Amino acid sequence: GCPRRLWMPHPWRHSRPGWMWLWAAWAAGCPGHSMIGHIALAGALEVKWETLLVGKKELSDSSLTPGYEGWWWADLLLSSAGVQIHERTSVSHVSVQKGRVTGVETDRGHIKCQYFVNCAGQWAYELGHSGEEPVNIPLHACEHFYLLTHPLKEPLANNVPTVVDPDGRIYIRNWQGGILSGGFEKNPKPLFTEGRNQLEIHNLQEDWDHFEPLLSSLLRRMPNLEALQIMQLVNCPESFTPDMRCIMGESPTVRGYFVLAGMNSAGISYGGGAGKYLAEWMVNGYPSENVWPLDLKRFGTLQSSRTFLRHRVMEVMPLMCDLKVPRWDFQTGRQLRTSPLYDRLDAQGARWMEKHGFERVKYFVPPGKDLLDLDQSKTFYKPDWFDIVGSEVKCCKEAVCVIDMSSFTKFEISSTGDQALQSLQYLFSNDLDVPVGHVVHTGMLNENGGYENDCSIARLSKRSFFMISPTDQQVHCWAWLKNHLPEDSNLTIEDVTWKYTALNLIGPRAVDVLSELSYAPMTPEHFPSFFCKEMSVGYANGIRVMSITHTGEPGFMLYIPIEYALHVYNEVMNMGQKYGIRNAGYYALRSLRIEKFFAFWGQDLDAFTTPMECGREFQVKLEKGMEFVGQEALLEQKQNGVYKRFTMFILEDHDTDMDLWPWWGEPIFRNGRYVGKTTSSAYSYTLERHVCLGFVQHLDEKTGEELVVTTDFINQGEYEIDIAGQRFQAKAKLYPFSSLFAQRRRKDEVELSGYQRE
Amino acid sequence: MLAASCCDRRMCVCPGPRRIAIPVRSSRLPLLSDAMPAPTHLFPLIRNCEISRICSTMCYCHHKHLCCLSSHFAHGHFRYAPQKKFAALYRPKENFYQFVHARDYASTPQRFYLTPPQVNSILKANEYSFKVPEFDGKNVSSVLGFDSNQLPANAPIEDRRSAATCLQTRGMLLGVFDGHAGCACAQAVSERLFYYIAVSLLPHETLLEIENAVESGRALLPILQWHKHPNDYFSKEASKLYFNSLRTYWQELIDLNSGETTDVKEALINAFKRLDNDISLEAQVGDPNSFLNYLVLRVAFSGATACVAHVDGVDLHVANTGDSRAMLGVQEEDGSWSAVNLSYDHNAQNEREVERVKTEHPKSEEKSLVKQDRLLGLLMPFRAFGDVKFKWSIELQKRVVESGPDQLNDNEYTKFIPPNYHTPPYLTAEPEVIHHKLRPQDKFLVLATDGLWETMHRQDVARIVGEYLTGVHHQQPIAVGGYKVTLGQMHGLLTERRAKISSVFEDQNAATHLIRHAVGNNEFGTVDHERLSKMLSLPEELARMYRDDITIIVVQFNSHVIGMIS
User: Fold this and answer.
1) Any chain A CB within 8 A of the CB of B256?
2) CATH 3.50.50: which residues of chain A?
3) Confidence of residue B20 (pLDDT cuts 50, 70, 90)
4) Which of A225, A239, A258, B285 is the most buried (most CB within 10 A)?
5) Both ends of chain A: CA-CA distance in Å?
6) Confidence class of residue B94 from pLDDT cuts 50, 70 and 90?
């Protein structure tokens, strides 16, 4: 199966490979159609034709969980390969030495091993915490009910498809000629919050009153089932994760400790693909597809609170059947990590989203302006914040804005001698041997040249570096550095994320605000682009000021020790008043970034994207004769060309007000043929057009084989972007509009006109 | 038209289960001419909606009332109204039904219905709750508080309710009063009865103190603290008159000073009898003020039943006159609810009561005493306040009516003398008093007029209120086990259970909750919103045909305190 659907089911997209969404018209022709009561099948039907890991046998047995026969089958298959299955054996803990798995302690003795896979389902959390070195697997169980009936008068055939009715929140499938039907109710019942559930699970009670809404929607959809006799209502808890995606991969703290759990009640259909990728991961070091959205390392210990998990899964489980609108934010488990400025910003109308537990501002609602209620604001069209973000963007372009970007992951790497520089030169693709005070934008690549991380590194001194990465890199990047940096007591790496509050001063007037506050010249001659300097702002000293904004706009990032955060913010806002300063949020930042063709790790870039494929060859030290991770792969790409190319598209005939907006994942068509998908998109208030970023491939027309993508191939094509079935003409560009960089300045600032940032 | 001059013409026209049925010849005319316009009133209302729904309401309701209707008619308290006429009364509706049905069947049915918020605002309009204040963090009263509510069917409503705390003695008084032939008597009793009871309970010294205060013009000790809904009014004009009668009563009590401690039961009986006596006397004496003169006559010629509870610690006394009812809600050890009657209905269904009436009159009248389950073929309750037509001699009635104001004289009802009226009085206001020692398992007391008891069994009342008050719905979890259950059956069962729970959460008042059930219950015993909405949407002139005024007081006991005292 296609792994992508594992983490983002998109009910509004019906063109996913390996995943069939059947619409009402089709339903009329499917076996068992006589049971479908309503003509307008508002949702979609879904057919699962998956072959499971344990074999087809299990599917035809049609029991929901792998039953005894399933195991028997697996046993038969695996024993021929020398695999032993120990049943009725309980694991007390996993032994770890020097950060590696060495064995498993069971009630039948010790078992030595190199690799351990925790796929204990809803017990995975407890098992993960049972060892000396805890592995946090954030999942929580909820009661899940499904109904079994006696066979129909005319028993259902084995090939009857599984029907999913998202509106009714139910699924229905054949079970021994009768039906098996369960669902995801709006009011889930979380359980086992305090753990120790192995015994209780056998005594769970049926709860018919709780099942009533699901039964009602079953009978509404298939009224003829009314006469069907009940066999049993099964209460079978399922585990859910904080973001509705399953958890797999290696522990960031214990090597050889793998996890595959938290399937959010889709274990049977995902089992095959998940098993495949985990096996690849264990054998090859990484699976054959990007599985970052499922990676255990997207979570840290901050998601291990049972209270947090209990509350979050109560929100997650009903979402299984809900329409997932773009820019959806979870409402539970919020306000965990906040900037010291949180209350100040909140009082000024900030609306918040959350990333890795950190509250970040989306935009500021001006006083007197009301936005829609949460439920009403859900849309695939032009959202209600459109004008608000537009005015924030305008302010960034014409005056100056402040964005609190404290959530960024911040590491300090230092050494007594040259160790830091040497190690980092090997781990990072760009040349870090720059003069002190310079900031380098670089990738952290894997052996295949793919981005494990995309970051900015400031050289604070000869021997110390300050590294800024995306928010959700906190666990992953830390683990990567720990695993790749040499064991050397003279080389230290410290996570200083919590020590600094980051303020992004964006806009042509940022320079004025900062120079007035510091009595230091901030003009490009004194403070060129990509520069870092510790200076005083207001009364506060030791503020790390960097001349980058992550948007391509002029301005500065201020890394402020948290105790000065409020002071510096107040000073900046007071001083900025005469320059028209205002608060802005991440949505404005995003619009600015995307119109400048800035790729972002986690959205556009992943472990399968190389600098060559996204036009960042200039950020790679290929010519300098230095060895670094991924060098060979990149050299090969340089020689042979790339098979996909990061491209910017400007939608031509898209009506912002009336048409569905592109969000991400829209198919790209070149001369009428599918060539790839978008990875992110935003409305550019400057271009007054939608900008989509995405990768273009060159597929052979006959064989479908991937061919090299050349600049000519990109430039000589007619492009269309398909938004929910409607195609819009798009102009493809490999480089950003240079006109956007020419600052529109007032006449009295002509002296700054030569100043260009990137 | 004759009916127009009638003090309460609705009384004459309504074919519903009236307390008093008047077989006056002339009433035939208003009966028909008044009932006929009903469809025309209805017409604009129904025009835009599916008429069949309204008719189904009618049919539905007829289930309940048809028996009453037919019995009343057939047994002839409309004996001058031939069956043919009765049929004529109903036929227009049938025709009308067919006519509109054919015309407008497919139009949207929604508009006619009250929405749930509208229904709620109607149900909650008269609700009242009182919580006994806690003393120093502890509630030392055996009463936690009470909820009361009333839903009119008559316009104006003829039911009354009262609640008050006795300030000079301990204890709380609660009562429901169901008026007939107008609301004047029920209103007067609701204002006055508790004073009579309180005074009857007062020790000699207190009575003296009060009398001295009045004598010397000093401030009077407050006797009662009323707990009144804003809609519960007291007549200002008559207060002086009422006060004087009351004062005469306590002066007599002072004179009679027996020195014995007051027995609650006796006090209740005395108070009831004394008040009825005063009502009768006031009407005979009259008042120089013509308004008051007419008022006291209306009070005396109309009637009211009373069901009053006096709670003092673990001692609960219920004094009942008429067919309202008091019921104790008891929680059994298994958590289930059962009902204990604390009053006997005084009507034809009560054999002892029929027996009592018969022994009080010569054998020659035996046959005419109770006819068609009514006293003298007219009155449903066998005991009541007022109703001097059943108490005074014919001469007295004639004298008072003739010397009374014109309004009274013009009234067909007051002039009418009951048939076979030989040995008055036929009616008494003397209550039957039941004393009950409260136990910890006695959780609440329901006092309600017959409007509730006609529609609900006491066992259901006990369960609904009990579950409401405890917030626990003793719905055993369902298990299929080895039984053969289909999905459809299970679905029906579950929907029913859910409806039960959801209706509880809508109400903050136990009495409101009970009314919701009484009016909206479907055949499953769960509230059916559509039915509720239909019942409450009935136009004024039809409402009385499908339901009676309902007045309910639910008193919640403090089991903790009761457990400690007993």
Assistant:
1) no
2) 91-323
3) low
4) A239
5) 42
6) very low
**H-state helical runs in A320-448:** 342-347, 386-398, 419-427
Q: Does B480 touch chain A (CB under 8 A)?
A: yes
Verify whether the Cβ–Cβ distance A230 to B480 is below 8 Å.
yes
ipTM value for the complex: 0.76
Q: How far apart are CA B344 and CA B356, in angstroms?
A: 13
CA distance B485 to chain A (A): 6
Distance from CA of B378 to the nearest CA of A (A): 51
What's the CATH fold of domain A409-585? Gyrase A; domain 2 (3.30.1360)
Vertex B287: Cα angle to B285 and B288 (nearest 5): 130
Q: How far apart are CA A162 and CA A48, in angstroms?
A: 6
In chain A, which residues fall in CATH 2.40.30.110?
A: 643-757
Mean pLDDT of B377-404: 91
| pLDDT, tens digit, 9 for 90 and up, residues B326-362 | 999 999 988 889 999 999 999 999 999 999 999 999 9
Question: Which amino acid belongs to residue B412?
Answer: E
Pick the CATH number of A643-757 from 2.170.150.70, 2.40.30.110, 3.90.1150.10, 3.40.50.1100: 2.40.30.110
Contact of B495 with chain A, judged by CB distance below 8 Å, is answered with yes
Q: Which residues of A429-456 are buried (b: 16+ CB within 10 A; e: fewer)?
A: bbbbeeeebbbbbbbbbbebbbbbbbbb
DSSP code per residue over B343-387? ----STT-HHHHHHHHHTS-GGGHHHHEETTEETTTBS-SB-EE-
What residue spans define the domains of chain B?
116-476+487-565
Residues A442 and A469 sit within 8 Å (Cβ to Cβ): no
Whole-angstrom Cα distance, residue A189 to residue A187? 7
Considering the segment(s) A91-323 as one domain, its CATH architecture is 3-Layer(bba) Sandwich (3.50)
What's the pLDDT tens digit per position in A678-735? Answer: 999 999 999 999 999 999 999 998 998 999 999 999 999 999 999 999 999 999 999 8
Contact A209 B488 (CB under 8 A): no
Q: Which part of chain A is CATH 3.30.1360.120? A: 409-585
For A338-365, what is the mean pLDDT?
95
- According to CATH, what is the number of the domain B116-476+487-565? 3.60.40.10
- The residues that bridge with B307 in the sheet, in sequence order, are B176, B320
What does pTM read for this prediction?
0.63
